[in-house]
Design brief:
- With about 80 residues, the chain is an alpha+beta fold.
- The protein is built from 4 helices and 3 strands; from the N terminus they run βααββαα.
- A hairpin with a 2-residue loop joins strand 2 and strand 3.
- The N and C termini lie far apart (about 35 Å).
Length: about 80
């Protein structure tokens, strides 16, 4: 969802409540440029990208496992 900074300031409470209900980020723009992103902390990064990868044969547990392996290899 994309909204203007003015819209966000005017309806701040509405967007705080809305972010807990939706599973997408809210991008806030000013003069046509994105200046901020508001996201629901209850939704993991794996959950948010799984929709992008829906055309591929990958499940969420595989994504998490691969992420942990990358993290461990950086130590």
């Amino acid at each position: 969802m994309i909204i203007t900074a003015t819209e966000f300031k005017t309806n701040f409470g509405k967007y705080l409540e809305l972010i807990t209900q939706i599973q997408e980020d809210i991008f806030i723009t000013k003069n046509g440029k994105t200046i901020a992103k508001m996201s629901n902390p209850q939704i993991s990064a794996v959950d948010s990208i799984s929709g992008i990868l829906s055309g591929y044969d990958i499940d969420k547990s595989s994504l998490r496992e691969e992420r942990f392996l990358k993290y461990e290899s950086n130590d």
